[in-house]
Amino acid sequence: MTAEPLSLTLLALVAVAIVLDLVIGDPRWLPHPVVGMGRVIAGLERAWNRGSPWLRQCMGALMTLVVVVGVYALAWSLLQGLAWIHPLLGLVAEIGLLASTLAIKGLQSAARDVAQPLTQGDLDGARRAVAMVVGRDTEALDEAGITRATVETVAENTVDGLTAPLFWALLGGAPLALAYKAVNTLDSMVGYRNERYSDFGWASARLDDMANWVPARLTALTMWLAALTVPAARTRGALSGTWRDAPGHPSPNAGWPEAMMAYLLGVQLGGINRYGGQVSERVRMGEPLEHLRVAHIRRSMRYMHGAWIAFFLLMAGLVGAWSAVS
């Protein structure tokens, strides 16, 4: 049987899963649940994304329901079955599934893969590396552009890959954390606002917005709290600046960690991006007190780690308080 939500046992399982992710990350040889989710989503999209706009919306909503509920039910049934065989087997499986929802080591490695060639002056290598993690055109980016793209990705994915999975894991164990990853995968695959997905992906995009609403705002707060321990952090005015700038971001959630990261680093994020040659101008967040350079990628990783650690400690405090009164 899976651990109860908001329990000290579940908190311990999540802590072990964090350590596991930090040590091994996502080994290529190990099947990953998100890969399976992606295959199911791709197959359903090909079969169901057709007809009138209204029908596409309905079928997209149905696919979202089927995938999210299906992932939760499959994970819950698997853990129940393994726990029936032996309780320890169920606990070990839950740790493994929880670890699969986290991407701490993966996000750190992706940022380092950009920072390393950029430090050596290898702009082409850095452009190739950043192109692996962002959707914008990277061929003409200079050091500042590469740095901005990387820092924005680190900030946004602190929520998607770290704090939001932790949030949902502590509320509902591995099944709910995996259901969140299903929502996140749906949004990344069909949530784009283009002609093909504008109707079919509407429900997936809205559900992703709702799933990240609380974690995104808590992440900005915990990033700021963690930065209080860093002498070089520009914490003064970061809370009010984030509150002012974040709502201008096209995403209702991504602006919160990005704006906070910008203020803590003393740089300006946002501005002009190009996607397939088309110019897209984003709201500018933060103050350009420093010129964007590779050192800011390394500093952003420190704030990323500080954010998830403070987030976990905050959630642990809430779990402890809940257990005390239960």
Please, could you describe this protein's structure?
- This protein is mostly helical and 326 residues long.
- The chain has one domain (8-325).
- It is 70% helix and 5% strand.
- The chain has helices spanning 8-24, 33-48, 53-85, 87-100, 104-119, 123-131, 143-190, 202-227, 238-245, 255-265, 295-325, and strands spanning 268-275, 278-286.
- It has a two-stranded antiparallel ribbon with strand order 1-2.
- α3 (53-85) packs antiparallel against α4 (87-100) and α8 runs parallel beside α10 (255-265).
- The model has no long low-confidence stretch (mean pLDDT 93).
Secondary structure: elements and pairs:
Layout: H1 8-24, H2 33-48, H3 53-85, H4 87-100, H5 104-119, H6 123-131, H7 143-190, H8 202-227, H9 238-245, H10 255-265, E1 268-275, E2 278-286, H11 295-325
Antiparallel strand pairs: 1-2
Q: Kindly provide the radius of gyration, computed on alpha-carbon positions and rounded to a whole number of angstroms.
A: 20 Å
H/E element order: HHHHHHHHHHEEH
Helix/strand/pairing category: mainly alpha
Number of helical elements:
11
What's the shape?
globular
In order across it, which strands form the biggest sheet? 1-2
Average pLDDT metric: 93
Tell me what portion of residues adopts beta-strand conformation: 5-15%
- Helix fraction, binned, reads over 70%
Cα separation of the termini: 20 Å
Largest sheet: 2 strands, antiparallel
Number of strands: 2
Low-confidence regions: none
Integer count of domains: 1
